[in-house]
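Why this split exists: single-chain examples teach little about how molecules sit against one another. For that reason, every record in the complexes split bundles all components of an assembly together and asks for one structure covering all of them. Below is a record exactly as it appears in the raw files.
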Amino acid sequence: MEAKVLRVGFLGFGTVGRGAYKLLTRSPETLTRRCGAVLVPVRALVRDLSKDRGADVPPGFLTTDPAAVLEDPEIDIVIEAMGGVTAALKYSLGALRAGKNVVSANKDLIAEHGQELFAAAESSGADLLFEASVGGGIPIIRPLKQCLVGNHIDEVMGIVNGTTNYILTKMNAGNGGFGAALAEAQRMGYAEADPSSDVDGLDAARKVAILASVAFTSRVTFDHVYREGIAKVTAEDVKYARELGGTIKLLAIAREVDGAVEVRVHPAIIPQTHPLAGVGGVFNAIFVKGDAVGDLMFYGRGAGELPTASAVVGDVVEVARRLVSGNGSGNSGLSCTCYDEKPIRRMNDVHTQFYVRMVVADRPGVLASIASIFGAQRVSIASVIQKRKLENDAELVVVTHPVREGDAQEAIRQLRLLEAVTEVASVIRVEGFATA
Amino acid sequence: MEAKVLRVGFLGFGTVGRGAYKLLTRSPETLTRRCGAVLVPVRALVRDLSKDRGADVPPGFLTTDPAAVLEDPEIDIVIEAMGGVTAALKYSLGALRAGKNVVSANKDLIAEHGQELFAAAESSGADLLFEASVGGGIPIIRPLKQCLVGNHIDEVMGIVNGTTNYILTKMNAGNGGFGAALAEAQRMGYAEADPSSDVDGLDAARKVAILASVAFTSRVTFDHVYREGIAKVTAEDVKYARELGGTIKLLAIAREVDGAVEVRVHPAIIPQTHPLAGVGGVFNAIFVKGDAVGDLMFYGRGAGELPTASAVVGDVVEVARRLVSGNGSGNSGLSCTCYDEKPIRRMNDVHTQFYVRMVVADRPGVLASIASIFGAQRVSIASVIQKRKLENDAELVVVTHPVREGDAQEAIRQLRLLEAVTEVASVIRVEGFATA
């Protein structure tokens, strides 16, 4: 039987596009055996024809004309790896409306414009797959959509940004504070000159919006995600967290509690025994709790040319298998799986533990005033530890029981006004410890 | 649009069957929304109608008549969770030949009779899916077949047996030797009265045969797997491994090296920094190295009613989605993915490091005779450590560089004949350490 020929177009041909091109062309017979089709990359839309692409493409492969990809009726599958939102949205919609299947590695696009894109895919019977948009090469979207479909997912908690995990890993190894660790990450090429998208949690927030949408089958967008970065985490906090049996990670957390979805990105202290605690350097991992399957974790490289391309090619082959099997009239039914409309919980109504590091006057009665402010806000205290004697002050670390975020924040606001409190130096949430 | 009704039959209704029944019936509208079909469990073949099944099934649901499942033309999907091989093979073949899709949780069956079963599935255009056969609820088969299809998989290394991992975790925590840890595992219900299938590595060998077949797209059966259990691992070995920066795990290892597949199950010392080292208790984890994606790990519960049922229901929904999407004439193309015929490497030709613990005469010249035996077999030594002074003897631990298995075994055979060697007490392979 002659294998069907499927033509692949590219929107953008940077790192990820080039990686996908390499994987598609390095051993075409193997891929054909695996998916029943011959996959032929035919054209890539780029802005600059003269730029060196680091891949040996045939003459005429690169084009600056969008129509050469979007309006070529022979192109069945489009890989969108251009990054950014405006042009990516326009061209992806164009491709989907033309009935082309789109494989996207673009988390910004999916997290901000998923709804519009999936609607376009639905009406033209095309697939929009996006395994590469979260966790690089780690299989997570398809396992959630397929393997775990019999579960009610309670929680998805992940380390989904390698840059910040590298920085926190360095800080945890005792290599100084945030500034030094960031500088080293920049030297190593793990952080950009302007690191804000990583360090401020924007990148992680986009990814957790996607994860939450898939896990809870309800649309969650970037705007829904509460977000704090890691720039305020200090060497002391890292040290004290370790003394508490914990480690500080930038966590992307999505939970469904009582039918509502909470979704947030912030530094958190997790137990050293938690599966996520051992995830070091630029590695990513996503921890999933399902009501049938229990605890799962998916671990791997969250970025990079070939890891991300691995996920892209997995999606391309998925589309190819469907087209070969003769189901070319409808899509796989797996592109959009937001069947429900669950409310998003306001951050103030989330429940979590808090670590609060304060510098306070070192005199009798101060602890009582602090405790009474927490108490008045129904914030129950799990432990108070005096860490250091400073000149006239003492450094105190308070860890709360799980409490309502809004109550804790109100208590902290009042603490800042207290004469005896010189400084509330750090407020870090605490997750994953067993609580009585 | 009215949802298609798909009827589900069961072969066997023990722990896994009951779990799948619970997941299929607890919230049918949710599942229908997720797969586009109404999934209706209609009948289960059992041996004993009077046994309490721990699930509230309708009258007439249980039957002792195989034909009531196999010959009911209304049954589209059959869940095979009867365990054992002979009857499971007969009935699964019957179901596949009748064009029914089979979802199996039976590792023995798949590892020993996969070829025959997949051929039957292929000729009738049915699917035979088996995510639940390895790693319980951990998604691993589908990620390998779909998400990672663009990779050449170099290695799959897993902790795939919870019983032995529980025993080794206990031993590692300093709770005595193998016997005491096994007794505790039995008390906890993690090990059976006759623990040999777990402890001797039979269970892990079946699972790694399946993993290797999927990872290397070439048939590997139980008979191909070299196998050693954990009964000979001692408290001293656990302690010394720790001193070497390692931890002892029962590993299931499958590698493709130079086009040949090696596949084995045995205790091994791995670095404490390896992602698998932290996998404790009854948890399972599978580490995968792909040439594009790099290192991945999948972690979770490898057994149990609902974790295993989670995987079964994932497969059932997969079949349902295909049947709903109109591709009812051929199967998914994902049942059998053994496109290649790769040779199996003989165990003697495998390369690995060895830890050899010996009791030897404590006198000059002994080390030289030992070293010369290793040297004559081209076994290069990485370290020699004297561990304990015994009465007239000394305890020595030798760690080799990576060497050919056959050479190491020949050296060890000769050591045992050496007058100065009182005992070769332990031989444990060493995996995953960086070697120069």
